[in-house]
Amino acid sequence: MPMVPKRLKPYAMIAPALAVFSLFYLYPIGYMIHLSFHEWNFISPEKTYVGLGNYREMLADDVFLQVLRNSALYTVMTVLLATGTALPLALWLNRKSGFHAFVQGAIFSPHIISLVSVSLLWSWLMDPEYGLLNGLLHPLGIGPLKWLNDPDTALLSLVIVAVWKNLGYNTIVFIAGLQSIPPELLEAAALDRSKPWTTFRRIILPMLSPTLFFLVIINLIGSFQVFETIAIMTQGGPVNSTNTLVYYIYEYGFRYFKIGHASAAGVILLVIVGTLTLVYFRLLSRRVHYR
Amino acid sequence: MSRNDAGLRTTVGPARGAGRPTAAGRFRFVLAAALRIANYACMLLIVCAFALPFAWMISTSLKTLPETMIFPPEWIPDHPVWSNYTVAWNSGPFPKYLLNSFFVSAGILALQMLTIIPAAYAFARFRFPGRGLLFGLVMATLMIPPQLIFLPVYLMLSDWKLLNTHLALILPFASSAFGIFLLRQSFLQTAGELIEAARLDHAPEWKIMLRIMAPLARPVLATFALFSFISHWNDYFWPLVMTTNESVRTLPLGIAKIRETEGTATWNVLMAANVMLAVPVLIAFFAAQRHIIRAFVHGGIK
After folding, report:
1. Domain assignment of residue A235, yes or no
2. What's the gap in Å between the CA of B95 and the closest CA on chain A?
3. pTM of the entire structure?
4. Does A259 touch chain B (CB under 8 A)?
5. CATH value at residue A174
């Protein structure tokens, strides 16, 4: 970059990246908020200003309220199960041996394959007639369960899939957190003959809390955005029992062509994700020192 | 924890009993052994919870259609039917899908390298007015997932007549806040004296960046590249929204579409397709497990 004056050099270096972010991340947010105050069917050249009309319409819509409830329920269950089981698993797998590395790899493997693979595989595992899950439960005298085909169990079935997919990631992150605890602390506790539960509560848990917090936020944000498993496994059904925010936005945008309505739902998602992010950074800045 | 604690107690127990194994010491020894066995049994159970679904996928992919409709299910088909794979492969333009997936993932990665290296270098090694603000802006986009902005981006791309093109799949990901963050950390850790020395020698800035800094950051770049490539290779959401034309669609969409072309209940063909999608990634994963796990643990911020 010989032509660029020295003072402008750093700006020139970040300009390409910044152009991408402004164009594809920041501007669309503003555009979406703008659209949420309009009525537009995507085809007509006119966008009609309706103020808060889309929001009012949405909050009066029983389906949307159910979508919010589904999203919240799915998120809470997934986060509780996926982080709650990952912690004991991490305490247990935190050893350096070939066998432990293998187990870590096995539980991590669903995380790196496509959600399409995961969704197709679990659709088949949960097949109400010939699926393996019912096959395994059959000798125990349970079932046959209808899994994704029953409004009462469909959302929970999707939670199981999400936990299966995310458990390995959470476990590995917990293990990384455990390994960053200074070994002197644990040795001191062992010398003091501290009970395992006391060691866990007084040393491990406090030292692990930034990791725990990071995982809870990441899982919360990720779960609120769930789309693929729903699109492939249930299409929001049966009777909207698995319809969640992103799928709702997708349907209103691309099936009903109600762009304003879909954008308003997008703004709601933005508020949720934004709030979670702010909470995260607010609490993080108290603990972690950035350079 | 349990195994450690049990181990601790057995060593403490007999020591108290003046070197002679007491009844309590022996009991603790047996208990420790039992715990150890229970421990491995539980671990085996967990491995099964993750290995069985994959084994079931492969088993189904080798069955005839009637064999998939047996309850309770059987694990080993009488004669493995390999033709499911050819049926799956021939049910759509799979060479095209594969090529598109490769082109898109590699294109994204190449552009990301071009945009994140200079940006990370500038944020790490220059002082300039607005640096904090601009870096904050970059970090903010880290928290904007594609699922949040797909609708306005779709409308924009539609205005620009870019829907159903490779560019629609590549351009929005041409830079990566996560990559900039990761690389900046690495650049910050590189010794400043090295750069000062090079600057004293009047080495041009781009040469310092590419000849000194980038090679030192190679492990971080590799980590990022693994994460980026696999994530976009696997992506279903973005190509689903931005394309309708099979000629630009990617492998995950092609696999998901088999349900439409071959019928929703042809699980043997579907699982054969699924093996083709998942197994190459799984093989790569187990071949480079440590690196890939590291890449994804860092990448989790997104």
Report:
1. yes
2. 18
3. 0.86
4. yes
5. 1.10.3720.10
